[in-house]
Specification:
Layout: H1 2-34, H2 36-53, H3 55-58, H4 96-132, H5 134-149, H6 152-162, H7 167-177, H8 180-193, H9 197-204, H10 209-217, H11 222-245, H12 257-264, H13 273-300, H14 302-308
Helix pairs in contact: 2-4, 2-13, 4-5, 4-7, 4-8, 4-11, 5-8, 6-7, 9-10, 11-12, 11-13, 12-13, 13-14
């Protein structure tokens, strides 16, 4: 009898959890369908991720295959174009479409990994600063203010010029120079949460400090933190493209949209497609991430919903 009762309770709890998940999914879908920009952003982000992951299967040609017989071919729909090279070729006869497809990998890897590094550093320093206060908070915040006083791009240029340019160098430099915004946000949230009743109750029952800091405080601002990280991926992608354009980012033979822009600028008068299509790829990627991040903010941040209603 007791076993049957336990089984019924477990079954009821499982059904309740499934029902809650269905309700959450329903709310998520309704919110997504109401937001046209959010839907476009999500579709754009998923498309970029799909292209980056399956670049080897999607790209019609090898990205660095040189064929001087077909150099500077226009897009296939223009006079003199070739159907085998849909977006045309560059000054070395390399397929532009294939290079753009492979370039998406670099942009996403640098963007996601640099934000992960910056977010981790910023979250740890922010929660430590807000939790302990005093001299620790003073030192961390003065460091944040000092870094914010310097133009970020200039700081990145100075640091990256010291190291050998490359994907890993970009990730580390961008991650270690953009953590300040995360620290300020987390610190502010922790200062607010420190006075909440559930935190005081955790103090009272002798909960370990690290548990209070990371399980109770950091977890309660995690959703907004994820939104900030998502939106900042777009700015990191733009910075990576700018550095690659200047020759201080990703180096050949690795394909980068920024470096493609740099190569194409010399042919703008005669072969406009060399710079135009990589520029369009950067623009669409950045806009998709911004639209998706803006929808995430409206979904996860009640204060934002209140301002818009």
């Amino acid at each position: 009898m007791l076993t049957d009762t336990k089984s019924e309770l477990m079954r009821s709890e499982a059904e309740y959890d499934i029902g809650k998940e269905k309700d959450r999914l329903r709310v998520l879908l309704k919110s997504l369908l109401r937001s046209k920009t959010g839907l476009l952003g999500l579709l754009g982000v998923l498309s970029i991720i799909f292209i980056a992951v399956f670049a080897g299967q999607i790209a019609p040609h090898a990205p660095n295959k040189i064929d001087l017989d077909v150099m500077l071919l226009p897009p296939s729909w223009m006079e003199g174009g070739n159907a085998a090279y849909f977006l045309g070729t560059d000054n070395l006869g390399r397929d532009l479409l294939s290079r753009i497809i492979y370039g998406s990998r670099v942009s996403l890897i640098v963007g996601i990994c640099a934000v992960a590094v910056a977010g981790t550093i910023g979250a740890i320093l922010g929660v430590v600063s807000g939790y302990y206060g005093g001299i620790i908070d003073h030192i961390i915040m003065r460091l944040v203010e000092a870094l914010l006083a310097l133009p970020n791009v200039l700081l990145v240029l100075v640091i990256i010029s010291v190291f050998k340019p490359g994907v890993m160098a970009l990730i580390l430099v961008l991650g270690c120079t953009t953590w300040t915004k995360y620290t300020r946000f987390i610190r502010g949230e922790v200062l607010s949460l420190r006075e909440r009743e559930f935190v005081k109750a955790a103090y009272a029952i002798g909960t370990k400090t690290r548990v209070i800091m990371f399980k109770h405080m950091l977890a309660n601002c995690f959703s907004t933190f994820i939104v900030i990280c998502t939106i900042n991926i777009s700015s990191v992608i733009l910075t990576e493209a700018s550095l690659s354009f200047l020759g201080l980012g990703v180096q050949p033979p690795t394909v980068s949209w920024g470096y493609m822009l740099s190569e194409g600028r010399m042919y703008l008068a005669t072969s406009w497609w060399l710079a135009t299509f990589p520029g369009i790829a950067i623009t669409l990627t950045v806009l998709s991430i911004i639209f998706f991040g803006d929808w995430l903010r409206d979904l996860l941040d009640p204060r934002s919903q209140g301002r818009r209603s």
